[in-house]
Amino acid sequence: MTRILVLHGPNLNLLGTREPGLYGHDTLHAITSRLDTLAVELGLELEHLQSNHEGVLVDAIQAAPAQGVAGILINAAAYTHTSVALRDALVAVGLPFVEVHLSNVHAREPFRHTSLLADRAVGVVTGFGSTSYTLGLRGLAETLT
Ligand code: CA2
Predict the structure, then answer these.
(1) Which residue, of 11, 28, 92, 120, has the greatest Cβ tally within 10 A?
(2) E strand residue ranges, 12-131
(3) What is the pLDDT of residues 89-127, one digit of tens each?
(4) What are the pocket residues of ligand 1 if the criterion is a CB atom closer than 6 Å to any ligand atom?
């Protein structure tokens, strides 16, 4: 079965508890459940990881090919705008990845308009709340089949 690594960056463990106006009411657990349900429909196997630590995310990306992962769905959160290390890891492993964001980063502060990942992504989905993740997973699945 096609394996997808779902990565969530810093502070996304707080989803559903604070700032619902920006990020919605869904918890990370709810997003994970929604993705798992969609994965059954699409015939995918998902592995989920949230970390507040850049190196942990880099390690997970590096380990992905050996674990049989075919693609990555990533909300790198603030690291989207800052992390050369995450970009380098994604480029190094060469797996197709889709970048997602809950909020529309282009409708927010200028520093969020830049992504260090986007030009190497298959696609970017931003601004649809937790639906960004399901749209992104559908897009990634189509890329892989
Ligand atoms: O819109 C997104 O998904 C972001 O990736 C979220 C990041 C932000 O830095 C990006 O620019 C856009 C922030 C995630 C913080 O998550 C929180 C969740 C609940 C309460 C506080 C923060």
Answers:
(1) 28
(2) 44-50, 69-75, 97-101, 123-126
(3) 999 999 999 999 999 999 999 999 999 999 999 999 999
(4) 11-12, 14-15, 18-19, 23, 75, 77-78, 80, 101-103, 105, 112
